Each structure stands twice: as structure tokens, then as C-alpha cells.
Amino acid sequence: MQDDIIQFAARCQRLTADYYARTYDDAGPVMTVQFGKKFARIVRTDANGSGRSVHCFVDMTNGDIRKASGWKAVAKHARGNINDDSQGMDAMTPYGAVYFKAAVKQGVIRVEHKSIQGNNVERVPVLRQFGPDLSRGR
Fold this sequence. Notes:
The structure is a single chain. By secondary structure, this protein is α+β, with helices and mostly antiparallel strands. The protein has one domain. Helices cover 24% and strands 36% of the residues. It is built from three helices and nine strands; from the N terminus they run αβββββββαββα. The strands form three sheets. The protein has a five-stranded antiparallel β-sheet with strand order 1-2-3-4-5, with helices on one face. A two-stranded antiparallel ribbon has the order 6-7. The protein has a two-stranded antiparallel sheet with strand order 8-9. The longest helix is centred in the N-terminal third of the chain and has 22 residues, at 2-23. The chain is globular and about 35 Å long. Mean pLDDT is 78; it is low at 120-138.
């Protein structure tokens, strides 16, 4: 799995380098991988070495790509997987993993939750939950 994650980081590096070459006429940041117990952290370091940030996290048990909530914090839902047909690149932008709603809208991920009514368990897409009343916490 570590080799797959390193190859994924290299693909992220190419995506970011291509974007920076087109947009800023610059090489862009450099990607490195830091392996932890459960997650691998893909770190982007500015070309001049002045700043670092987390590009994304990869779950080392199943290859799920997670957005970073902070330096050590991993977002709750997976945005993609490094073992899918696109090798995880559908879930990536030059700046990191896609936002959750964008991933759902693009069809990269499909999320369902369980709605329990009586003894029946019904699967309902999450996006149907967010109506005008529920989004305000009512």
C-alpha cells in the first residue's frame, strides 16, 4: 500500500506542477509523504521552502482519500480512493481533495445514510436531507 500512496503523491505532484506551469509560470510546491499509523499525510511544501500544508490524507488500510481538517485532523468522509479507475485523481484538485458536496455532485462518491422508521431500515441519499428547514438546524 505504501508504494501505491507514493505513486498517488507523484500524480498529485504532476497535477499541481502542470497547473502552476500554466497559471503562474512556476514549478509549484513539492509533495512529500509522511506515513503514520493509520493515515499517510501528503504534504505540499512551497518551492522556496517557506511554508508547508497538508494536501490530503490517504487511509493506509483501504486507500480512501480524505480532505485535511488541519495538520493532524482528517475530514470525516472519503473523497475518493487511490485504487479506483482514475487512481484517485477525480477526487483531487491542484490545491487538495475536492469538497464533499462537489464530490457528490460529480458522482465521485455516493453517500447514503440509514433512516429507521419502525422496524424498517430505508436507505436515503444524504442530499435529500438538506432542505431549507434542515440546513438551518430546525
